[in-house]
Amino acid sequence: MLTFNVNGVDLAYERVGKGNKVLVLVHGYPLDHTIWQEILPFLNAKFELVLPDLRGFGSSGLSNGQSSIATMAADLVALLNHLDLNQAAVAGHSMGGYVALAFAQKWPERLSGLGLISSQALADNPDRKQGRYEAAKLIFQSGVQPVANDMPLKLSPNVRVQTLIREVINRQRPVGLAAALQAMAEREDTSKLLPGLQSPLMLLHGDADELIPIERALEIKQVVPEAHLVELAGVGHMPMLEAPRETAEALNFLK
Fold first, then answer.
1. What is the pLDDT of residue 46?
2. Which residues contact 213 (CB under 8 A, 6 or more apart)?
3. Cα 155 to chain center, whole Å?
4. CA angle in degrees (0–180, nearest 5) for 162-167-170
């Protein structure tokens, strides 16, 4: 992987593909950029692909054990600047979708298309917010193992995918996961952004998603009727691993 420095934090990314359009793929919690590997063969010829590890995940550093969704979005802008890229389509999975929405909110002129994969625009309700803080506390006490044991079953009904996810989670650092949970708990509601969105919007969601129900994508479709919505039958929270070809085909809408 390649790295660059933002305000003293080393951020890692992979850059592949030969297409004319730039597509930034942003992973979710508690994962890293490797979740996209199975869809790359379907996209390499059509996009120049940029796959960052968000701060605190994978090979990227973390400053003072703190993060925010807005800071992660600012990191994406810094990455585009580092690569001398004026504009890009940004597609985010789950928490990565929150980052993509924050990017769209603050830097719409840098956005050529927005993809939300198993994600939503709503902020956490009080119970969900409290749950994230309790989960962060548990990670500080017990490390990533409880997350690796519990989370894969919620992310996908596919046993092969569960195994892959568990391996990725076990590579993460407790401080990065805890900081991300706190960042998600404090994120803004970006629903009001959607009606005025000037870039093409692609929504991809599995109807067996236990973490973020497909109703969240259907609600966005009602607000943005021109959005391209792809519903995947029997797919959980990890469509890029459960249905890689279909996920890549959906992302082609951003080309």
1. 93
2. none
3. 14
4. 120
**What's the mean pLDDT when you consider all of the chain?**
97
**How many domains, in total, are found in the chain?**
1
Q: How far apart, in whole angstroms, are the C-alpha atoms of residue 229 and residue 164?
A: 27
- Whole-model pTM: value is 0.97
pLDDT of residue 80: 98
In a domain, 197, yes or no: yes
Residue 13 and residue 40 in contact, taking contact as beta carbons nearer than 8 Å: no
Quick: pLDDT tens for 1-35.
999 999 889 999 999 999 999 999 999 999 999 99
The three-class DSSP label of residue 226 is coil
Q: Is residue 141 part of a domain?
A: no
Domain containing residue 209: CATH number:
3.40.50.1820
pLDDT (tens digit per residue) in 48-79: 999 999 999 999 999 887 899 999 999 999 99
Q: What is the DSSP string of 187-218?
A: PPP-GGGGGG--S-EEEEEETT-SSS-THHHH
* 231: containing domain: 2-123+187-254
Please enumerate in sequence order all residues whose Cβ is within 8 A of that of 42, keeping only pairs 6 or more positions apart, or say none: 244, 245, 248, 249
Strands (E), 7-110: 9-16, 21-26, 47-52, 88-93
Consecutive H or E run containing 115: strand 111-117
Task: Give the single-character DSSP code of 50.
Answer: E
SS3 202: strand
